[in-house]
Amino acid sequence: MKGIELSKKYFEAFGKEVLETEFSSVLPLIAVGLAGSGSECLGFDDEISADHDFEPGFCIFLPDENTVDRRTAFLLERAYAKLPKEFMGFKRSPLSPVGGNRHGVIRMEDFFLEKVGSGDGRLSLGQWFSVPEQGLLEATSGAVFFDNLGEFSAVRKRLDYFPEDIRLKKLCGNLLLMGQSGQYNYKRCVLRGDTAAAQMAVFEFVKSALHSIYLLNRVYMPYYKWSFRGLKGLSVLGGLSGDLEYLISSGNSSDEAEKKAAVIEDICKKIAYEQKEQGLTDADGAEMEQQAYAVNEKITDHAVRTMHILSGV
Q: Could you give the C-alpha distances from 170 to 163, 220, 306, in angstroms and in order?
């Protein structure tokens, strides 16, 4: 069973009744769901995921103390702690009395401050560049079972994805790195017989290509161990998963290197074509460095456009 499904079933079996009978006055002011850290919030959880931090539980998100006071929050915490410790064969983890729990009662402001550094989801230009993408993903993933006040969902909507100029700046930086690592340095490392450096160049290329594909899909890229899993579900260029996996799982003998160089060029051509389709570049060809500067010219904000081209990576 998927974690989100388990969470919702547990809430409907036990949490909903407690909230409706004991905290009816608070219901219009809170949101309930499952969001934050954990593969279950991304829908990537499987049998292996159940070996840690996988449990029946949900989050009760509260607005500020002026809206829901400390005493009410304490009573909610106590009621949540009393819910059944086992459900459908899964056991709940003990709640920490000093906070930091993934489930239970959480102030909305605290949740977003931890994930993105802003309690209301309003980010400055510098924050959009500096906040880890995984934090943005955790702030916006998962499922909201209900949000009567609408505040939690409103903040998530602000963080839904990068502003367009930020997306383009991140894209052009990754394109430049694709060109440097895959189209230029890989071949030179192979010619020198430095197969270790050649494979590192391939890793850099694949990492930047992955990020470029997520950016072209307007989807936050997850933590590295889930990046390929997420790639397979993307509608734009998700089919490149096999080629990218081949690049990092094959060797660098003469024959392999020749094939890998061809695969790299093919990936670059497909990404360049997609950028053209999205109106992000006026450049022809698949030279990634040229594509990078062409995408940078599409940035409308002067301050962002004139930043170093690698500012977004």
A: 11, 12, 13
User: Is the pTM for the entire model greater than 0.90?
Assistant: yes
Q: Which whole-number Å values give the CA distances from 292 to 180, 186, 210, 298, in the listed order?
A: 11, 19, 15, 10
SS3 call for 247:
helix
CA separation for the pair 199, 73 (Å, rounded)? 53
Q: What is the pLDDT of residues 122-180, one digit of tens each?
A: 999 999 999 999 999 999 999 999 999 999 999 999 999 999 999 999 999 999 999 99
Contact predicate 252/260, CB 8 Å = yes
Q: Who's near 211: CB < 8 A, 6+ residues apart? A: 170, 174, 221, 313
Residues 6 or more apart from 150 whose CB is under 8 A from it?
Answer: none
User: Which residues does 176 contact at the CB level (< 8 Å), separation at least 6?
Assistant: 288, 289, 292, 309, 310
- Over residues 271-305, the pLDDT tens digits come to 999 999 999 999 999 999 999 999 999 999 999 99
Residue whose tokens read 């017989």: 193
Token pair of 185 as six digits: 């340095």
